[in-house]
Amino acid sequence: MKANWQDSEQWFQALFEHNPNAAIVFDEETRRIESINRAAKILFNYREEIFRTLTLSDIIDTDPPRLCDAELRREIRAFRTMAGAVFTSEIAEGKFVFNGQSKILWIVREMDNQSDVEALLRERKVQEYRSLVENIAIGVTLIGRDMRILTLNRQMRCWYPRIDFSRQPLCYQAFNDPPGEKICTYCPVIQTLRDGRVHEAVAEIPSERSVRYFRIVASPVVDKEGNIRAAIEMVEDISEQRAAERQIRTLSQQLLTAQENERLMISNELHDSVAQDLSTMKISLALTLGESSTLPDDVRKTLTDMSSILSRTIRTVRNLSYDLRPPGLKEIGLIETLGSYCDEFAEDAGIHAEFHSTGLKNRAMNPFLEINIYRLVQEGLNNIRKHAEARRAVIFLIGAYPNVILRIEDDGKGFDVAAREQAGFSEKRMGLSSMRERVNLLMGKMSIRSRPGEGTRIFIRFPFRDGLSDLSEI
User: Fold this and answer.
1) For this UniProt entry, which residues form the secretion signal (predicted)?
2) Domain identity same for 337 and 468
């Protein structure tokens, strides 16, 4: 047994000594060189007794790398000989334990030409990218032209642990529960495979009795001739983000609903109490002026002035009540209420205002959607009155299933859209910003087209919700 062990030790010693590449053993902690072979002596031109007094920093032309715990690592390093000559070599690194201490073995292979260096650098770069893709928190899948999964990273395997990807299943079957029978309608991969461009989509994908929301970006993989060979699908799980957005949207809706309820209460109080009391006072003054012929002229004049002030105050209170809550919205509906509001706006502001509607006749609309459309028109016309210097405004409300389209146009002085949006907060012109926030709450989109001297067009589109829809779905 002892003889066999001694023979084995001699065999490994001979293998180490006669290796054609330089072999260096050093201590991991101190980096002091402890053993070298014949090729190392020749390559570095050091005698063995001098070599054993050196550390890595004495023979490496750059700072030594931070050593890792991997069993084997390859890299390129620049070394110095005893005479100071610098040469480039490939290092294969291994780690072992001897007498309870960690040791590192370097096999140093001198690279004869630049092509060897470039090839190793390319290989190292590929390994780095492969490691990055494998360990990134975003799912990455390589999908062939036949929609089969060629390979995928650790994150995708973690999301779908029960799928055997070694058989290269079809992606629309592997990534859906139950498995899909045909290519998903939203699929950006099939679009990328067709036109070679990057496509993006957000998808709801069933998974183990729940629904996940994924943001999917597909990029083409082309060969040297420019032919599309496959597509890289990058998948980000945005389920938590969607849940947070729904919660924020619900809270915002509740806040707006509470605000509208408070406005309704104040509106009713102004109309039914304050305005009525003021009207009673005006009637009493009128009776006093009509019945009493003995009033002094100055008293009569004072009462007449008071009656005029009361008339203006009553009109102001009623206008304020109507602004807080349109009185006909519930009784006569959104279309008629907006038509009346535009007529009143034209009379009050001196701006010709037109209202046109199509596609929404006899359609029951969600009350939350109705009041927000009303507020958008209200804010849009107020912006025109304050800033546009317009002579004409036109409102279009169109039902184009599955959307509702609102357009607000004027022939005013116009403005620089980008500059105004950037300066909107500092200038306290919050009309456009508040409109955009309201549109976002309705899951809609708003665009503005305007140029100085060419008027303004606001285009708003949001999904239609009928009268039975739950507000939480908006």
Assistant:
1) none
2) yes
